[in-house]
Amino acid sequence: MFGDGEFYVVGNDRLHKLRSALNDLTNVTYENTHDRNKNDEILIMEIEKISWRHDDTIVLLSGDHDFRVTMVALRKKGVKTIVVHREGQVNSSLTSVVDETYSIGSILY
């Protein structure tokens, strides 16, 4: 669905159904933030620590606008940016700067 190569999936365990579906994939790294807003800054710092390469892919499990600047920076590096969000809970300022968006329901069902 998302393409080939290495994937970094980041988000909180509220989307645990998707995380459990990722367990069988060998080319996926998953970072769980355990909590919502208080860990957004920590997650952004962790994303920024990764040595991103052109043609890497990030799958962000959040619809929060706090990730907008980070997604813009990654796209400038040639990273494919994908957002997976809960139905109706995605900020348009985020979706306007990423390559693809999916609701969690469209992936699981």
Model description:
The chain has 109 residues and is α/β, with parallel strands linked by helices. It has one domain (7-108): 3-Layer(aba) Sandwich (Rossmann fold), CATH 3.40.50. It contains 5 helices and 5 strands. The chain has helices at 16-22, 40-49, 68-76, 92-95, 104-108, and strands spanning 7-11, 28-32, 57-61, 80-85, 100-103. A 5-stranded parallel sheet has the order 2-1-3-4-5. The protein starts with 6 loop residues before the first strand and ends with a helix. 23% of the residues are buried. Residues 14-103 form the NYN domain.
Give the helices and strands, then pairings.
Blueprint: E1 7-11, H1 16-22, E2 28-32, H2 40-49, E3 57-61, H3 68-76, E4 80-85, H4 92-95, E5 100-103, H5 104-108
Parallel strand pairs: 1-2, 1-3, 3-4, 4-5
Features:
109 residues, Rossmann fold, RNA nuclease activity, NYN domain-containing protein, NYN, five-stranded parallel β-sheet, 5 helices, 23% strand, alpha/beta, globular
